[in-house]
Amino acid sequence: MDERMSRLNAHQNNLDRYLRLLETHLTETERQYIEKRLSEERFAIAMLDFLSPPKGHDAPRVHK
Question: Whole-model pTM above 0.90?
């Protein structure tokens, strides 16, 4: 697996974890923190897509 896909997978795993956390009972401060982290992870994925687009058509783009 190339570095780009490894990074995308790591960011996607973080997104999945944060989305699961949002489904739990959180304080407003915790919720704000998780929403900020979600935004940062989505931005990181967007930057990876922008700076190093996938090679060929077989590389999936990961978004949520």
Answer: no
Phi, psi of 59 (to 5 degrees): -90, 115
Supply the DSSP string of 8-39, one letter for each residue: HHHHHHHHHHHHHHHTS---HHHHHHHHHHHH
- pLDDT, one tens digit per residue, over 5-28 is 999 999 999 999 999 999 999 999
The number of beta carbons lying within 10 Å of the beta carbon of residue 28 is 7
Closest to 12 measured CA to CA, from 37, 57, 42, 39 = 42
Q: How far apart are the first and last CA of the chain?
A: 22
